[in-house]
Design a protein that fits this description.
The structure is a single chain. The protein is elongated. Strand 7, helix 8 and strand 8 form a beta-alpha-beta unit. Helix 1 packs across helix 3, helix 9 packs across helix 11 and helix 9 packs across helix 12. About 45% of the residues lie in helices and about 15% in strands. It has 3 domains: about 200 residues, Rossmann fold (3-Layer(aba) Sandwich); about 90 residues, N-(1-d-carboxylethyl)-l-norvaline Dehydrogenase, domain 2 (Orthogonal Bundle), CATH 1.10.1040; about 130 residues, NAD(P)-binding Rossmann-like Domain (Rossmann fold, 3-Layer(aba) Sandwich). With about 425 residues, it is of the alpha/beta class. The longest helix is centred in the middle third of the chain and has 32 residues. Strands 3-2-1-4-5-6-7-8 form an 8-stranded mixed β-sheet, with helices on both faces. It has a 6-stranded parallel β-sheet with strand order 11-10-9-12-13-14. The chain is built from 17 helices and 14 strands. The structure holds nicotinamide-adenine-dinucleotide (NAD). Nicotinamide-adenine-dinucleotide binds next to helix 1 and helix 5. The site of nicotinamide-adenine-dinucleotide (NAD) has 27 residues, from helix 1 and helix 5.
């Protein structure tokens, strides 16, 4: 099967490499020439466990290639995925300009039947806009070429993207065409041997499913953060409360970890976009408005603890920050809570020295000389008045606390993830959420 994927970002690259691994011939396309040139030379644009091996192996086998030429790729493509970014526009809605640019190029160049599948996260009605855009271009050219539209939202998690793609809980496909359904069934057939299901539905429901899934997960995070903050006030321990409620099978324990708020390229923008959709349709999603407001507040909780501890006397203090990516397993810093914290620290006159196992280059690109970059975790804490544990990388789990306490000016640890047992922190003062 010949597949092309427009957009070689997190989703496009992982999907392309995985489809190639399953035997398809895949061309990943992007407008970013440097990214494509890098990939053609085996250089990965992102850090994702296992991805480099998968890409190199499939390139070598001739099943995976990279190009900037979308128009020229249409001739031998049976299914074209749109996996370009849909960042938030000024008003919170999803910016569809990249998606519709791909649709226009398709309409301008299509010569034979094509199934166009939206994999980007797009609001209800967007796939219809893709259809209209392609049809409009074909009409302008006076061409009567058949094509179909489908929606196949992606549910992978950064940091476990390959595992998620290869062994998904479910694959959701929205389509109104028998031919599209047959093609998508054939595409996912190699994965049907494992136990997941392909769930077919109409296009609007598939588009909504993706937003509803992310909104539910974001809601759980804001919920447990509110409970954690309340636990702190009333003298309860949120880690025990979490165990107590998570063991109820109706509730489950996933996405119930208190922390410094959710970030990343998806939850914040998808919650915003769904709020906007609600307002546009006269059906406000007030629950999600609260989820968003709680999250904005939560991103400032760690700084608040630091400020309270030193009674607002912060100027000139040194802060160490462990963990910059928005979660472990990725170098993605989009909307990361670490960015809010660092900005608050800098604004209050602190010096900031950071560490992250994989996101240091990304941090240098974003923050430049405004902060200091540590060689290792011990280097990061030398002379520090506070250590913030922001992203729960495994390598932070068992450091030498005695050494850390002796290197710091004042041994204050603010544990944003609640992973350290206070009893196992000799000589440290530990504050945590909940
Ligand atoms: N990152 C995730 O974990 C994740 C998970 C599920 C769904 N999604 C959704 O998938 C979509 C893509 O997300 P991402 O994180 O992969 O984005 P990304 O920013 O990592 O990559 C998008 C890519 O599209 C390219 N692009 C832009 N316009 C183009 C065009 N006209 N033709 C070809 N390429 C073009 C960009 O250069 C970029 O490389 C978004 O809608 C996102 O919400 C992301």
């Amino acid at each position: 099967m010949n597949i092309s994927i427009a957009g070689t970002g997190y989703v496009g690259l992982v999907s392309g490499a995985c489809f190639a691994e399953l035997g398809a011939t895949v061309r990943c396309i992007d407008t970013d020439q440097a990214k494509i040139a890098g990939l053609n030379n085996g250089i990965m644009p992102i850090y994702e466990p296992g991805l480099a091996d998968l890409v190199h192996r499939n390139m070598k086998a001739g099943r995976l290639s990279f190009s900037t030429d979308l128009a020229g790729s249409l001739g031998d493509t049976e299914i074209l995925f749109i996996a370009v970014g849909t960042p938030p526009a000024e008003d919170g809605s999803a910016d569809l300009s990249h998606v519709l640019a791909v649709a226009r190029t398709i309409g301008e160049n299509l010569e034979k039947y094509l199934l166009v599948v939206t994999k980007s996260t797009v609001p209800v009605g967007s796939s219809e806009l893709v259809r209209e855009t392609i049809a409009g271009e074909l009409k302008r050219r006076g061409k009567a070429i058949g094509f179909d539209i489908a929606s196949n939202p992606e549910f992978l998690k950064e940091g476990a993207a390959i595992e998620d793609f290869m062994k998904p809980d479910r694959v959701v496909v929205g389509t109104d065409s028998g031919r599209a359904r047959e093609l998508m069934t054939r595409l996912y057939a190699p994965m049907q041997l494992s136990s997941f299901r392909v769930i077919f539905m109409d296009i609007a429901s598939a588009e909504m499913t993706k937003y509803a899934a992310n909104a539910m997960l974001a809601t759980r995070i804001s919920f447990i953060n509110e409970i954690a903050n309340l636990c702190e006030k009333v003298g309860a321990d949120v880690s025990l409360v979490r165990k107590g409620i998570g063991s109820d099978t109706r509730i489950g324990s996933k996405f119930l970890y208190p922390g410094p708020g959710f970030g990343g390229s998806c939850f914040p923008k998808d919650v915003k976009a769904l709020i906007k959709t609600g307002r546009d349709h006269g059906s406000p999603v007030t629950l999600l408005e609260s989820v968003e407001a709680i999250n904005e507040r939560q991103k400032r909780v760690l700084f608040g603890k630091f400020s309270d501890y030193y009674r607002g006397d912060l100027s000139g203090r040194r802060a160490a920050v462990w963990g910059l990516s928005y979660k472990p397993g990725t170098d993605d810093m989009r909307e990361a809570p670490s960015l809010t914290l660092i900005s608050q620290l800098l604004q209050s006159g602190c010096t900031v020295r950071v560490h992250d196992p994989v996101a240091m280059d990304e941090a240098r690109r974003r923050l430049g000389p405004a902060i200091e970059y540590a060689a290792d975790i011990y280097d990061s804490v030398t002379g520090a008045d506070v250590l913030f544990h922001v992203t729960e990388w495994k390598e932070y789990r068992m450091p030498d606390w005695q050494k850390i306490g002796s290197l710091m000016k004042h041994p204050l640890l603010i544990d944003g993830r609640g992973v350290f047992d206070r009893a196992g922190l000799p000589g440290m003062v530990c504050l945590r959420i909940g």
